[in-house]
Write a structure and sequence with these properties.
Protein name: Fructose-bisphosphate aldolase
CATH superfamily: Aldolase class I
Cofactor: Zn(2+)
Number of strands: 11
Order of helices and strands: HEHEHHEHEHEEEHEEHEHHEHHH
Number of domains: 1
CATH class: Alpha Beta
Helix content: 40-55%
CATH architecture: Alpha-Beta Barrel
Distance between the termini: 15 Å
Pfam families: F_bP_aldolase (PF01116)
Organism: Cephaloticoccus capnophilus
Keywords: Metal-binding, Zinc
Structural class: alpha/beta
Number of helices: 13
Radius of gyration: 19 Å
Oligomer: single chain
Length: about 325
C-alpha cells in the first residue's frame, strides 16, 4: 500500500526512523520488499533522477507497482530523491509518487524558499508530501557533488524560518553526514548538538538525514578481496540512527550501502565462478543478501515490528 511520507512520519515521530532506500532495478526492488516484510517495517522507496534515466522512468514505476502486488502487505511511500523543480512537477503530475524532494539547497536562502514554496503548493494540491533541504551535505552521489569546503551545517534559526515560509512537510538537515562512501575521517560523527537545536525550534516537525549509509567495513574488505580497490571509506555509525530518531529524525536515507552489497555479491560470484556468464544466479544471491541487509537496518532504525501498529493507525485516521 502506497502512503505519503507525512502519514509515515506521523506514526514514527520520536519513536523510530523510516528507512529510505534508493533502488534502480528489479533485483533491488525485490530485495527491499522482502527485507521489509521479513522485518515487518514500513519503508520509503527513493527514486533519484539518475534512476529514472537508467532505463526509463516508466520501467521503474512498473517494477514498483508489480512488487507492491507481490507483497500486498507492504506499506511504503514512493519518493523522488533530490529533485529539481521541473523533475518535481513531472513526478507530481505522474500520479505515481506520493512524495517529492525539492533540493534547492545550493541556492541562496530566499531563492530556496521561493522554489520550495512553488513545489509545495503544486504538490499539496494533489495530496503529495514535500521534503526540502537547508544546508549542504558534502560528498558525491550521482549528479550531486559538493566539496568539503562548500558543505555547511543547517542553521537552526534559518530552519525554523524556512519551514514557516515554505510549508514543507519535512526538512533534510545538514548535521555532519555526506553523500557517498567517504563520509568521515577519524572518529567524527553526527552533530547531535545542531540536531537538538533544530528540534527545539521545530518541535514535532519531521527531520530527514541524508547521506546516512554506514559503509560496512566487512563489505568493503570483501569487495577488495575480490578485486576491488575501495580505500579509506567510512560511514555513519548505525548505532546513531535511533538516537537521531529520538530527536525528530523520521527519515534516514541509505543508498551507498546497497551498492556495496551489490558489488560484493557480484565480485565474489564471478571471482569464484570465472566460467559463468549468466547474471541471474548472482542476481538471486543479491536479492537474498539485500533483503537481509534491509531487515538489519530496519532493526537499527527502530522501524522493525512497526507494520501492524502502523496499519491500525492508518485505518483509524
Amino acid at each position: 500500500m502506497i502512503v505519503t511520507t507525512a502519514q509515515l512520519f506521523k506514526h514514527a515521530y520520536g519513536k523510530y526512523a523510516v528507512g529510505a532506500y534508493n533502488i534502480n532495478n528489479a533485483e533491488q526492488a525485490m530485495g527491499l520488499f522482502q527485507g521489509a516484510i521479513d522485518s515487518q517495517a514500513p519503508f520509503i522507496i527513493q527514486i533519484s533522477k539518475g534512476a529514472r534515466k537508467y532505463t526509463d522512468k516508466r520501467m521503474l514505476e512498473a517494477i514498483i507497482r508489480s512488487a507492491g502486488e507481490i507483497y500486498p502487505e507492504a506499506i511504503f511511500a514512493v519518493h523522488l530523491d533530490h529533485g529539481d523543480e521541473q523533475t518535481c512537477y513531472d513526478c507530481i503530475d505522474s500520479g505515481f509518487f506520493s512524495s517529492v524532494m525539492i533540493d534547492a539547497s545550493h541556492d541562496p536562502f530566499a531563492e530556496n524558499v521561493a522554489i520550495t514554496k512553488r513545489v509545495v503548493e503544486r504538490a499539496h494540491a494533489k495530496g503529495i508530501s514535500v521534503e526540502a533541504e537547508l544546508g549542504m551535505l558534502g560528498g558525491v552521489e550521482e549528479d550531486i557533488q559538493v566539496d568539503e569546503g562548500n558543505a555547511c551545517l543547517t542553521d537552526p534559526a534559518e530552519a525554523e524560518e524556512f519551514v514557516k515560509q515554505t510549508g514543507c512537510d519535512s526538512l533534510a538537515c545538514a548535521i555532519g553526514t555526506s553523500h557517498g562512501a567517504f563520509k568521515f575521517k577519524g572518529r567524527q560523527s553526527l552533530h547531535f548538538d545542531v540536531l537538538e537545536k533544530i528540534k527545539g525550534r521545530l518541535p514535532n516537525f519531521p527531520l530527514v538525514m541524508h547521506g546516512s549509509s554506514s559503509v560496512p567495513q566487512d563489505e568493503v574488505a570483501k569487495i577488495n578481496a575480490a578485486g576491488g580497490t575501495i580505500q579509506d571509506s567510512m560511514g555513519v555509525d548505525p548505532k546513531e540512527y535511533l538516537p537521531a530518531a529520538k530527536l525528530g529524525v523520521t527519515k534516514i536515507n541509505i543508498d551507498t550501502d546497497g551498492r556495496l552489497v551489490w558489488t560484493r555479491v557480484h565480485r565474489e560470484f564471478f571471482r569464484n565462478n570465472p566460467e559463468q556468464f549468466d547474471f541471474r544466479p548472482p542476481g538471486k544471491i543479491f536479492m537474498a543478501e539485500y533483503a537481509k541487509f534491509i531487515a538489519s537496518r530496519n532493526e537499527l532504525l527502530g522501524s522493525a515490528g512497526q507494520l501492524e501498529d502502523l496499519r491500525k493507525s492508518l485505518a483509524a485516521s
